[in-house]
Design a protein that fits this description.
Layout lengths: L8 H23 L4 H35 L4 H13 L4
Length: 91
């Protein structure tokens, strides 16, 4: 398999490493008996970081890989592809 990298991959890795650090702190918070509200807030931050990493990865894939596969299309045939790319922002 060939190496598959996009310009956004380093930023995605950075986000995931940050989420990993938050997740480790959540585990420590649970083990040390911290209040549930504090733990829930940190878990929310972890979820948001991971969701944003996923969203960035999917958008990048669509913007590059899908475009490369589809190639140049006349305007009337591009509408479905453009709408598909737009709707994925709601993932």
């Amino acid at each position: 398999m060939t190496e598959h990298k996009h310009e956004t991959h380093p930023e995605i890795v950075k986000r995931l490493k940050r989420a990993e650090g938050h997740l480790k702190s959540v585990i420590a918070m649970i083990e040390s008996g911290r209040p549930c509200l504090d733990i829930a807030q940190q878990l929310h931050a972890v979820e948001k970081a991971i969701a944003q990493a996923k969203r960035t990865l999917i958008q990048d894939h669509l913007d590059h890989c899908l475009e490369e596969t589809v190639g140049a299309l006349p305007r009337e045939r591009r509408q479905s592809i453009d709408e598909f790319k737009l709707i994925t922002k709601y993932l």
